[in-house]
Amino acid sequence: MSGVPCELQHYDGIPDGFLDAGPRDLAAVLGGPSLIRLPGKRRPPLFVSAILHGNEPAGLEAVQRLLRAHRRGPLPRELVIFVGNVHAAAAGVRRLDGQPDYNRIWPGTEETGTPEADMAAEVVRLAGQDGLFASIDVHNNTGLNPHYGCINRLEARFLGLASLFSRTVVYFTRPLGVQSLAFAPLCPAVTLECGRAGDRRGSEHAFEFLDAVLHLQTIPDHPAQDDLGLFRTVARVRIPETQTFGFGEQAQGIRFFEDLERMNFRELPAGTPIAAYTGPGVPLLVEDDQGEDVAERYFRDAGGELVTARGFMPSMLTLDERVIRQDCLCYLMERLALP
User: For residue 20, what is the DSSP state?
Assistant: First the structure.
């Protein structure tokens, strides 16, 4: 247990000070993780979550811009907003030490029995009790990545919703406990990855998407773009806690190349070097969708270098060592044909 308060706050209307609050102000303005309900012309409501990670402000900025744009009249559709880890946001970090990841606590999580998991289950119950039009979870990421949408079901309306945001769509079923997996049984659900924190293009893109969905009468049952690129996450790559690593020639242990994040969303052929490494074997934890260790399927020791053992496309590679320790080094993807 983290000891950080996570009691759910409830608001029927825009909280005082919310529209002008920065991420570091949210804990003081809201008092904790918050569910905000706003009326609109149509039902059922659109659900939007933001600040599941405290250092990813795109969702907050997009929601604030959306509410300012409609402050003179009723919203086109009812809106339910969940603002998540406000205490991590106050510190400017993904999550506080000892806290669970707020995008691993949702129903279906392996981290059951925590106050945070109970709170997330309550959010799903309350938000979905009268039906939902769609669910949108907004994130930034730390590495060089394009804007893309993530879905958990290969169904027409899920693809249709995600393709309104980007021509790049990623399908995944792990890790468990993420927000979009919890909402997928209730409505079309998508996670937006909006590039680096601090890049205004990400929050602007998210705002444009939220505003467009808010005006929709129905979710399209076909991709909105003919050249849609669909990828499936096949494995998650982590670094063992006991393994040292860094970037560049001065690093100890695994010496990843300093331009590593430029490999994101590039199809890497077998034999592509990613790091210098003098130890035996593959010093990475690589798990597939069944939780099986598949490190040697995707990487191999090439006598002083760590190289790819087969072709794949990485995503979310980052140079942020804290994020790597708290989450992972990257995800591995393969291209999928459109269903």
Answer: G
Longest Cα–Cα distance in the chain: 66
Q: Provide the angle, in degrees to the nearest 10, between the axes of the packed helices 200-215 and 58-69.
A: 50
Cα–Cα distance list, 303 to 13, 279, 335 (Å): 61, 9, 30
Within-domain flag for 125: yes
Q: Are residues 249 and 269 in the same domain?
A: yes
pLDDT per position as a tens digit, 65-116: 999 999 988 999 999 999 999 999 999 999 999 899 999 999 999 888 899 9
What is the Cβ-side half-sphere exposure of residue 5, based on CA atoms within 13 angstroms? 12
Tokens of 15: 């909280």
Q: For residues 109 and 181, what is the distance between their CA atoms, to the nearest angstrom?
A: 10
Answer yes or no: pTM beyond 0.90: yes
Residue 207's domain comprises 9-227
Cβ-Cβ contacts under 8 Å for 336 (sequence gap 6 or more): 154, 171, 230, 231, 232
Query: Looking at residue 128, which CATH number applies to its domain?
Result: 3.40.630.10
- The per-residue pLDDT for range 258-311, each reduced to its tens digit, is 999 999 999 999 999 999 998 888 999 999 988 899 999 999 999 889 999 999
